[in-house]
């Protein structure tokens, strides 16, 4: 299925929920809708599914405008944050229902395969009411996958699951999506989830589509400050700077000898990802001395919050490290790994994969 949205927008009362939007999710691939709560992800998916009608614009499916066509007439599978299952059917029959409607053979085998991949094979003979919320969500996922619809919409489907299971299911879902022929649209608030799913990413903010493209490309080359903020976890460090003939001068800090386009505005914003900051120097690094304000251990990483002359910085260090509050520490970074945005927040300079420009 080729889904294309042309000039789609949604207004509710005086509020514009979705601004004029053009997007064509890549057929047969995964497109991630990335954005904070109320960015417009669910509103957009409901229009894609036919649950809502846009205030204007066209929703094209294989060249046909389907605006006004009921959801029952569309071959779409959708999974919400809130699980929806048939309460009177056992788990086995919930998953099997779309397979039986299509008259497929080997229904029991297909049901068991999906149940095993989603870790619910031991619950096949239970009713949904006998399961936890996370288990019921996995049943809803299995039924959607069993439907094999050409368009599959998943609205934060793993949000109600515990961390470990969420990590496992991301890997399973990535493999299941790759093995199928569906166009998958997957909404999430987590930049890390977008990176793990790969494919393509559309960054949304306050009902606007900011950027769409291959996930790695959008991550490594955000078109604007708004995209960089949305596609960074922890948030990108942002520092005030000024363009000079010699390069970029961090306000209150060192000069970075970077070549900027002659059209670059004098006032700039420099962005550094937390993972680009280190506590040990490498060749070509710039030093930023400071004082530790907070150190947090999260999983296998340590996040160190440091007050420096150029501003507050967060460094993401691999492994478990211990820092005394108030201790003096020097952060290091390679100027080739920074982002530069102009006064309007548009990207001026970004790292090239591999560390160069």
What features would you describe in this structure?
The protein is an alpha+beta fold and 357 residues long. 23% of the residues lie in helices and 34% in strands. A six-stranded mixed β-sheet has the order 6-7-8-3-9-10, with helices on both faces. A six-stranded antiparallel β-sheet has the order 13-12-11-14-19-20, with no helix packed on it. It has a four-stranded antiparallel β-sheet with strand order 2-1-4-5, with helices on one face. Strand 19 and strand 20 form a beta hairpin. Helix 3 packs across helix 4. The protein is globular and about 70 Å long. The two termini are 38 Å apart. The model has no long low-confidence stretch (mean pLDDT 90).
